[in-house]
């Protein structure tokens, strides 16, 4: 079974600074998908960014980018120019090709605090 | 705006009660999911429906009974729950289960408390 590890339970960043959240995963599969989700307090979980394992190019979405290292099984999220609205719990997620990609495994989460 | 709507937002029930959680989406998605999330923990998959058919049951106790009456609606029927079942229950949908790079869209969840 796949496992997803987020080694930083909590992180903090000054407003307008850059922060990197780490995620590693364990899998024997070669084809899969990775996601970062954001869950603000008492609000719904929303997608931040996604990465296809077969693509070498790192995904970017405005201030959010990833550093995808397939051989190292690492998928970190970089948030540039941090804003107060970025404060949330961030979950790394792995989507497996087995069982028709229906299974998504989430990491334990990183709580991000943004300091004004 | 939340595209996946869950009702009720909060539910308090006794261990002998029967209640249902409801989830609705009108995005034309054909895959729907139930997750359980304990405080400060990641969501844990419970059930997956694909084209209104149950495709995954992650060994969930029978006191949780899912139902997918149509492609827009997903229910979770609850009966004889235990205090440890208190959690946030999240519903999600995605276009199809085979669209592997399509993210799941989550609802706001139902916060369930068992007395």
* Fraction of residues in helix of chain B: under 10%
Let me know the number of strands of chain B.
11
Determine the number of helices of chain A (DSSP H or I, runs of at least 4 residues): 0
* Strand percentage of chain B: over 45%
**How would you spell out the order of helices and strands of chain B?**
EEEEEEEEEEE
Q: For the CA atoms, what is the radius of gyration of chain B?
A: 13 Å
Task: Find the structural class of chain B using helix and strand composition.
Answer: mainly beta
What would the keywords be for this entry?
heterodimer; A: six-stranded mixed beta sheet; four-stranded antiparallel beta sheet; 0% helix; 51% strand; B: 115 residues; mainly beta
Walk me through the topology:
The complex is a heterodimer of chains A (116) and B (115).
Chain A: E1 3-5, E2 10-14, E3 19-21, E4 24-26, E5 33-39, E6 46-52, E7 60-61, E8 64-69, E9 74-79, E10 88-95, E11 104-106, E12 110-115
Parallel strand pairs in A: 2-12
Antiparallel strand pairs in A: 1-4, 3-9, 5-6, 5-10, 7-8, 8-9, 10-11, 10-12
Chain B: E1 4-7, E2 10-13, E3 18-25, E4 31-37, E5 44-50, E6 53-57, E7 64-70, E8 73-79, E9 87-94, E10 105-106, E11 110-114
Characterization of this structure:
The complex is a heterodimer of chains A (116) and B (115). With 116 residues, chain A is mainly β. Chain A is built from no helices and twelve strands. The N and C termini of chain A lie far apart (41 Å). The mean pLDDT of chain A is 93. Chain B is mainly beta and 115 residues long. Helix content of chain B is 0%, strand content 56%. In chain B, strands 2, 4, 5, 6, 9, 10 and 11 form a seven-stranded mixed β-sheet that branches. Chain B has a four-stranded antiparallel β-sheet with strand order 1-3-8-7, with no helix packed on it. Chain B starts with a strand and ends with a strand. In chain B, strand 4 and strand 5 form a beta hairpin.
């Amino acid at each position: 079974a796949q496992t997803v590890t987020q080694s930083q339970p909590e992180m903090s960043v000054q407003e307008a600074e850059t922060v990197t959240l780490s995620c590693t995963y364990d899998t024997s599969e070669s084809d899969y998908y990775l996601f970062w989700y954001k869950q603000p307090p008492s609000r719904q979980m929303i997608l931040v960014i996604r990465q296809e394992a077969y693509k070498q190019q790192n995904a970017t979405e405005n201030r959010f980018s990833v550093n995808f290292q397939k051989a190292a099984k690492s998928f970190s999220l970089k948030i540039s120019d941090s804003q107060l609205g970025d404060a949330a719990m961030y979950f790394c997620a792995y989507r497996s090709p087995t069982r028709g990609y229906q299974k998504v495994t989430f990491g334990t989460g990183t709580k991000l605090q943004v300091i004004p | 705006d939340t595209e996946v709507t869950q009702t009720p937002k909060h539910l308090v029930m006794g261990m002998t009660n029967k209640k249902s959680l409801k989830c609705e989406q009108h995005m034309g998605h054909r895959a729907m999911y139930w997750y359980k999330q304990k405080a400060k923990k990641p969501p844990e998959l419970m059930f997956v429906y694909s084209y209104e058919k149950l495709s995954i049951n992650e060994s969930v106790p029978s006191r949780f009974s899912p139902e997918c009456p149509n492609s827009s609606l997903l229910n979770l029927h609850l009966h004889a729950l235990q205090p440890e079942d208190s959690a946030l229950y999240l519903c999600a949908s995605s276009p199809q289960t085979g669209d592997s790079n399509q993210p799941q869209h989550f609802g706001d969840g139902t916060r369930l408390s068992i007395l």
